[in-house]
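Researcher: Last one for today. Full complex below.
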Amino acid sequence: MPPADRDFDGKPSDPVDQLVIQLRAYVARGREKPKQDAKKATATARRDSISDPDAPRTPPSEWVLIFDCETHTTPDQRLRFGGYQLRYKGQLWERGAFYEPKALEEPEKTLLRQFMAKEEPGPDGERIRLLKRSDFVEEVFYKSGFAVGAQIVGFNLPFDLSRLAIEHESARRGMRGGFSLRLSEEARWPRVAVKHLSQRAALIRFTGLRKEDKAEEEEVDPDAPHESEEKADPDRGYFVDVKTLAAALTSGSHSLESLSELLQVPTKKEPSEEHGGPLTEDYIRYGLRDVQTTWECFDALAKRFATFNLDDTGLYDLYSEASLGKAYLKTMKIAPWRKLQPDFPPQLLGQILSASHGELRVKG
Amino acid sequence: MDEFERFMSRARAQWRAKQKGKTTSLWGFENWASEGKGDHHIAREKYGEAIMPVPISMHRELTRRQMEEHPPEGADPIGPLERRRRLALGLVDMLECLADGLRLAGEKPADADGHGARDLDEEFDIPEDLAALICLVSGRLMAIALSRMLDVEE
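Model: Here's the assembly. Have a good evening.
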């Protein structure tokens, strides 16, 4: 960087530091091109309808699927077995375990079968099953979760979803930067896209079904909304990461253990020293117990959230404390400023944002 | 299909209806008065000719149950055993619909009672369409009992 000292009236001034500064930019959306045909006009109408943040979203059904995976401790952290519960209106309808056949030795599979065969239904008279991973994905995750509009619940859900995946690739469009996970061999079931927003939150949704055919791909409207602008419709699913939910409602980062302590749930998380070791009855019990703990934490947090009377917002909509603030504004029917004053000059908005940035710097 | 799978099958149907904006019961009771009727093959057409006029929404759900919930065919799909079995299953579905309708009609006054109502109002009557259907199904069952045959001719 060249010297910047200058003389004023022949007197040397104090040296001036040349520093890299940061600017905040505001990019206005370009003018829309006139639509050439009815198909594009329809796409625009659809975009306008789904971009409306006030448009009501179909709430989930009263089913909840909770699951948790136990993995190898090797770098690939491959799935060994997992536990799940399927609940309707809170009542336990089905619970069980699933396993990855290739990841367990034959004696371990036998032990798992024997353990699950000894399990007795509780007071709800639930069905108990032991399934292979692929059957769990097909029969429980999709047919009893996705297809009935269930909330799909887990603690650190992105990790558990990725353990169920048989294939992954980079997500596209609005979920770009995340992963698209394929869980089933069946083409009729959508993939799951996961995109991390922070250490505590991730966007998770079912993708649309793929149009692999290139000709069809070309028919996609180039002016169609960015996927992040799309309001998630019911097909996108209702994923609730209890870790994210807890962070939003308690303003703290929690492990399942610390959360179960905080919420004083009946089934507290218990530590295990058996991760990665041979499968034992205690370790299977530990895995199934984690599912129950996750459910109890979810239930306690859901009850806490219900006291806020934010009826237009679901647990699956909460990503941080800010989501709660937005939910209150929504409930109070306070429309976003840009929606009320769409013609506000974008240049002025850019200047205001830059000034705000400068003010913060001075204060800091 | 066991009880659990039947329940899940209905939950999936309910969710599909909800996504299409039909948010009430699978039988669509609230549409009965306005939507007209269609002839429903009680056992499915391939298993018998017996038909009954039913509301369109009910017809849709009865057909779904026939396709999704009824068991696979037996050894002789066109034999008398299969026909009788399918007719019985079809009648079961219709009776379930009537039971659900009556339950709904019974819950209405209970809800009103919870909200302070004390007088019996017209809205608590069993809906006319439901009452008519109960008579129709009852008549069919009586005919079956009298004839001692399940697959009666229409």
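Residues 212-232 of chain A have pLDDT under 50 and may be disordered. The longest helix of chain A spans residues 281-306.
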